[in-house]
């Protein structure tokens, strides 16, 4: 499927943001698998929330506070595409006060200095985040990436985005009818179908999830088959884009924090208490901890 490109204006960025840093993160984020075809630009393809129309966009940063968006898709969906990429890059959150979290916590200040302008880069939707949570549960990352790629290439849609050939993740109506996939462990396919059905019914709406108290949203997400606390946090934080949730089930984050704060025996409650100083950006700070932790892991290999 090839669509015509339409410049669609600009996104005004409240607070510091570095699009090049977001593009570098997404290029190295295995589930996304996006090509690095234009330094500093970010190319994405996804199914549009609710409509599930396959679309694409190219983001470029023309000045520190302005992002231009080139939309590849039907013109009637231009505003919706821009709104979705704003959420995907965490530009729908006013980040002006984010440096204040570093002012309250010197460890966070160091992280912000090492990753200036990097905000959480999200899945295209809570639906895609939920599917990734199911696919990646209790298997190797490389295996989960292969499974996602097979599903995407078989049931998704190809979109030409600024000279790059990208695939959108399958729309819920399509995935809900998906058949047996080689290599996909037994319980995963029915769980994926159930999540697709829930998304089609509006149960994974990003705005609705973010409007709820965090614990209420997490409890609702855990009603989905195969979704426990860890997966629910992933969906709410990296799918819906909630900016202020401390991940209580993410043991890797806790390990990184214990090392950073020199608290080898700290429990989750103590770490959550430390994170109180990060409000209202607990999700953002946790994201920076993970990014730094992954970078150090790669360096040690």
Shape: globular
| Helix vs. strand class | alpha+beta
Strand order of the largest sheet: 1-4-3-2
CA-CA gap between termini: 40 Å
Q: Tell me the number of strands.
A: 6
Portion in helices: 40-55%
Count, helices? 14
Radius of gyration using CA atoms only: 19 Å
Strand content: 5-15%
Low-pLDDT regions? 1-5
Average pLDDT: 91
What about the largest sheet? Answer: 4 strands, antiparallel
Task: Describe the protein's architecture and organization.
The chain is of the alpha+beta class. It is built from 14 helices and six strands. A hairpin with a 2-residue loop joins strand 5 and strand 6. Helix 5 runs antiparallel to helix 11. It is globular. The N terminus is likely disordered.
In short:
The protein is α+β, with helices and mostly antiparallel strands.
Keywords:
301 residues, disordered N terminus, globular, alpha+beta, 6 strands, four-stranded antiparallel β-sheet, two-stranded antiparallel ribbon
């Amino acid at each position: 499927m090839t669509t015509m490109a339409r410049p669609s204006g600009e996104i005004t960025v409240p607070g510091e943001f570095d699009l090049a840093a977001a593009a570098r993160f997404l290029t190295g984020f295995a589930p996304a698998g996006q090509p690095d075809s234009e330094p500093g630009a970010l190319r994405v393809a996804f199914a549009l929330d609710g409509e599930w129309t396959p679309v694409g966009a190219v983001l470029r940063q023309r000045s520190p506070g302005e992002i231009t968006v080139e939309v590849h898709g039907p013109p009637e969906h231009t505003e919706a595409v821009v709104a979705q990429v704003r959420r995907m890059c965490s530009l729908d959150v006013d980040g002006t006060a984010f440096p204040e979290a570093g002012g309250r916590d010197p460890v966070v200040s160091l992280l912000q200095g090492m990753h200036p302008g990097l905000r959480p880069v999200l899945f295209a939707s809570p639906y895609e985040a939920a599917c990734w949570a199911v696919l990646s549960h209790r298997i190797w990352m490389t295996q989960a990436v292969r499974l996602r790629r097979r599903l995407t290439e078989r049931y998704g849609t190809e979109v030409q985005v600024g000279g790059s050939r990208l695939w959108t993740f399958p729309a819920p109506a399509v995935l809900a009818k998906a058949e047996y996939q080689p290599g996909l462990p037994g319980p995963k396919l029915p769980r994926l179908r159930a999540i697709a059905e829930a998304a089609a019914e509006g149960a994974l709406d990003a705005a609705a999830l973010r409007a709820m108290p965090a614990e209420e949203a997490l409890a609702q997400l855990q009603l989905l088959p195969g979704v426990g606390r860890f997966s629910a946090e992933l969906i709410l934080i990296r799918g819906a884009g909630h900016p202020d949730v401390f991940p209580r089930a993410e043991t890797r984050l806790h390990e990184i924090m214990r090392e950073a704060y020199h608290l080898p025996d700290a429990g989750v409650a103590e770490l959550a208490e430390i994170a109180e100083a990060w409000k209202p950006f607990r999700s953002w700070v946790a994201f920076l901890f993970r990014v730094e932790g992954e970078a150090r892991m790669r360096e040690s290999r």
